[in-house]
Structures are given as structure tokens and as C-alpha cells.
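Q: For a teaching session next week I want to show students how multiple molecules come together into a single three-dimensional assembly. I've collected the sequence lines for a complex. Could you give me the predicted C-alpha cells for the whole thing so I can convert them for display?
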Amino acid sequence: MNWLGLDLRAFAAAIVGCVLGFFTYGYLMHALGMESPWVIGLMVGGATALGSSSRSKMRGLVVGTLALWTAASAQALNAAQTPAHGIVDGLVGFHATLDLVRLAQLTIGTLLAIGLGALSLGGHRDGSGPSRQAEPR
Amino acid sequence: MGWTEFWWGVAILGVFFVSDLVYALDHYLVHFDRERYARTHSIHHRRYNGRKNERHLDHSELTTYGSAALMSACATSALTLLTGNPGFFLGSVLKFVHTLLFHHYQHRWWSEVAVRKQGLPKATSGWGIASANYHAYHHSHPDDLPFTYAETWKGFDRILEWLHPWLLKLTVDGQAGRIAAKVMSRDAARGAKTVDP
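A: Of course. Below is the structure for the complete assembly, covering every listed component.
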């Protein structure tokens, strides 16, 4: 598998980052009253970087998108007023909940995910140094 | 149709326009980047310039179109989420489907006879939709006027012809000095003669 530089290991790492970020956001929200969607971007991007064996700017784009949707889902689920007004309704109406502060935090989180997601901190299977992986055409 | 559907339509058309622009520009740039052309796009030209011996849309083409669609989907899904307008994401999905279907139409001349031996007429310069003959001319005469880099709207090629004297300096081949110093003026581009099919 190779979707814009995202191999199976990096993809799995990104998903793990999404799950961890999702629950971290929920913990910070409920236990400390902090709304920090940028934490999700940091965790998704960081996990992907750790799981990637080569750098890829295009992978950063995919990871940034995953982080943005995870952050929106986390906010939507945590803001749900009733079980009937669940995550899907929350995502459909997500744009209506955006103010400048939220938008800025989401932007920071997405940029963090894009930047970190493009890096390679996971070392290489063959022990060689970092190298650019050819983009699929 | 209400205003909601109107803005959905605007978003869909906007995605089509921007995607076609990006395609035309990237196609122009790859033709003026010798190494990148040899590594990637030349495969497409060699395949379709010869005799048809395989199905349309091989693994390489599907990967290229699929990668572009994935990049578009990432950006448009974010726009849809932040604006509440599903037209953006819908536009990228429709554009991908359009690209696959239009590819079949634009390469329908691919047959037992190689394209250069088919005697197809020269592409007509204009501002309409890029026809199959227009794209066939790109395969038989990729470096000639009129420009034939656009996927759907020929207008992008007219604009690229106008910008070419300046854009050329920004291309990889232009910066490496591989292109002769001859500047294609706008008058020369407009003076290119064509033969109606």
C-alpha cells in the first residue's frame, strides 16, 4: 500500500494517533475544561512521523486532513446535547459552531499535523538514513 | 432551486475549474522538465503513441489520477467541513469520475494504427472543450502550436500561450537553459495557422 507516501505502517500509526488524540481531547475537555483541538493535530502528526520510514509532503496533506476531521468529530461528540443529536449531526452543523478562536486552534492543529506528518522519525527498516521516497505517479 | 443548491453548484463548478487549471499547468510544467518527463509522463506518451495492445487506464494512470483525486478530496473535504457546503467534496468526486470517463473519450483514437500515421488534422485553437482530436494532436505534436496541455477547457491553453514567454523562465528546463533563447511572442502564438477538421 502506498497512498501519497502513506504506507501501511504509517497509516496504522496515523489511526492510532487519531484515537489517542480523540480521547485526549475528551479528557482535557471534561477533566480540565480545556478545549484543545490542536492537541489532536500534534498527536496524529507525531504518531505518523514515528511510524514513517521516509519523508513525504503529500503524506502530510493526508494526515492533516485526518487530524482536522478527528478534531471536528471530537468537538461534535463532546458538544452533543442529546444522544439523538449525535456526531453526524454535529459534523453537518460543525461550520456553524466556528468562531475565530476555534478556527485558529483547528488551523494550528492541522498545520502541526501536516508538518509532523510529512516527517520521518521512525527510522528505516534497512538501517539507512532518511531519504526521500519517490511519490507515486 | 434555492440558494443552497445554487451555492452547491457554484462550489462544484469551482472545484472543476480549479482542478482543470491545476492539471493544465502541471501538464505544461512536466513537458518543460526533462527529468520529470522521462521519469513519469513519457510513459503515457509512449503507450498511446504506439499501437493499442492493452486496455485503457493501466495501473500507472489509475495511480496518477487516483493520487490527484485523493489530494483534491483532502482539500475539498476540509472546505466542506468548514463551510457546510458539500458541493466542494462532491465536486472533487465528480471531477474524478469525469477524468476517468473523459480519458476514454480523449484517447478513443488509440488503435492498431499509431497516432502519427492516422493523418489526423491539426488541433484547432479556441476557447471550447478539448476534443479527442485536440488531444490526439498533443500526442502526435506535443511541442507544437497550438498548446494542447489542457484536459477539458481549451481556454487554459490560450492563456498558457500568452504567458509562455514569462512562464518558460520559471520551468526546470527554462532555468537550466535547455530551451533556446527564442521567445514565443503573443503575436506568434496568435498567428499560428490551423486547419479545420
